[in-house]
Design brief:
Elements lengths: L3 H33 L11 H16 L1 E9 L5 E8 L3 H6 L2 E2 L3 H9 L3 E3 L15 H6 L4 E8 L2 E11 L6 H6 L4
Length: 179
């Protein structure tokens, strides 16, 4: 009987861990299902705000990040404006402003490449890649910047920061392709 106690305790903890993982998988599938359920109406309109909220929630769930901001490209294609966010104060959200090609966010939009910053980013050029004043307070590593492309053009950006694990793993970086 004394030998059975550690085995029972181990079985209990494994069951508990399994239930936690099962709950995570269910939340992930729910988020992905919510994203996949969106479609274009017969009149050609997409539910922009609900889709953006589902995308932000899905990224938060998938990458376990406490801060997610979705920027959309303005009609004049000169700037990106915040469309929705999670984990960012309303004041910070309202002050976010990205000019096309300026700073790290603007460069990511312009060249269409993801930025992974596990540590402070060093850029090879002197002026083009520097952080803007606003970015210096906003962009605290680790973070990911993911350009959202449609027909080869950047239509928005996702800025994902503060991973709950403390850093983004290679697996997390690969998951961004789901987005």
């Amino acid at each position: 009987l004394h030998d059975a106690l550690p085995i029972c305790r181990e079985a209990f903890f494994k069951k508990h861990e399994f239930e936690i993982e099962q709950g995570k998988a269910a939340r992930l599938m729910s988020s992905l299902g919510r994203l996949l359920s969106f479609g274009v109406t017969p009149s050609g309109h997409a539910p922009k705000r609900p889709f953006a909220e589902a995308l932000i929630d899905g990224v938060h769930t998938l990458l376990k990040a406490d801060q997610v901001v979705l920027f959309e490209t303005a009609a004049d294609k000169r700037e990106l404006i915040p469309f929705g966010s999670r984990g960012v104060s309303p004041e910070a959200h309202s002050q976010m402003h990205v000019l096309w090609g300026e700073g790290i966010l603007g460069q990511a939009a312009q060249n269409g490449r993801m930025v992974v910053a596990p540590v402070p980013v060093q850029h090879p050029t002197s002026d083009v890649g520097r952080e803007t004043l606003h970015e210096k307070t906003l962009l605290v590593a680790p973070y990911l910047i993911v350009p959202l492309l449609s027909q080869g053009q950047c239509v928005g950006l996702l800025w994902i920061a503060k991973p709950q694990s403390g850093s983004f793993s290679t697996e997390d970086r690969d998951r961004k392709s789901v987005v």
